[in-house]
Amino acid sequence: MSLSEFLANLVIPLNLSITLLLVAVILFITRWRKTAAILTLSALAWVVFWSLPTSSLWAGGLLEQRYPYTAPADLPTTQAIVVLGGNTANSRQNWFEEYDRQSTIPRTETAAKLYAAGRAPLIVVSGAALDGGASEASMMAQALERDGVPANAIIQEDHSLTTYQNAVYSAAILREHGIQQFLLVTSALHMPRAMASFQKQGLNPVPAPSPPQIVVPAEPNFSFWLPDLRALQASRSIVKEYLGILVYWLRGWA
């Protein structure tokens, strides 16, 4: 595991809280008890904060609303659609509802709807194999074909492992095909970092995110202020996205 991967996993609310509690125990044993108490309170506050639905709605909503969802018919006609690999919150419609495979909205579905609406004649799918198996690009291509997109309208970029590489390798393909105008498809949460990464490559994509997932559910008993396990689990994506934006800015990738 690389240092960046380690840090990305460390900042996940539950992981960070457990780490702080372990450090607090060590400090308590070594008689640094005031510091131990501060760390313990910080750990508890951090995990409680991210278990509240209102925290995810606020922090995640800031990212999702940066580039609001737009219906395919209201987007401009371009030369291509670029779809980035990834699976934010299992592509579920709503983070605060139970996972239902039948109601998921994967990024490929968003791209297929754009293609069917005549927004572009070509789709570039971007993503390498993360586990040594089939690449995300090939799996997305198969999903697009199942949704009615012809194979000859799909170009696969299967070398990128990060958003930065998505942008670099996709930019090369776009320039090779003389494509200047294109729609960029990813999750609403990921769109700010994706847009910044592609713009850093000298490109000017049109944002076409999948529908937002961090929204108030229709459940009548939903509470903004009661701790919720699904909110805590989903918060990892929000925290990691903010960390990713910071790292990309520091490294000059976005």
**Helix-and-strand structural type:** alpha/beta
Number of strands: 5
The low-confidence parts are none
Percentage beta strand:
5-15%
* Sheet with the most strands: spatial strand order: 3-2-1-4-5
The CATH architecture name of the largest domain reads 3-Layer(aba) Sandwich
Mean pLDDT: 92
Q: Compute the number of helices.
A: 9
- Which fold name fills CATH's third level, the topology of the largest domain? Rossmann fold
Total of domains: 2
Question: What kind of assembly state do the chains in view correspond to?
Answer: single chain
Estimated helix fraction? 40-55%
The shape, in one word, is globular
Major beta sheet, specifics? 5 strands, parallel
Distance between the termini: 24 Å
Gyration radius, in Å: 20 Å
Descriptive notes:
This protein is of the alpha/beta class. It has helices at 3-10, 13-29, 33-51, 53-64, 107-116, 136-146, 163-176, 191-200, 229-251; strands at 80-84, 123-126, 154-157, 182-185, 206-207. The chain folds into two domains: 3-62 and 223-251, no CATH class; 70-207, Rossmann fold, CATH 3.40.50. The chain has nine helices and five strands. The protein has a five-stranded parallel sheet with strand order 3-2-1-4-5, with helices on both faces.
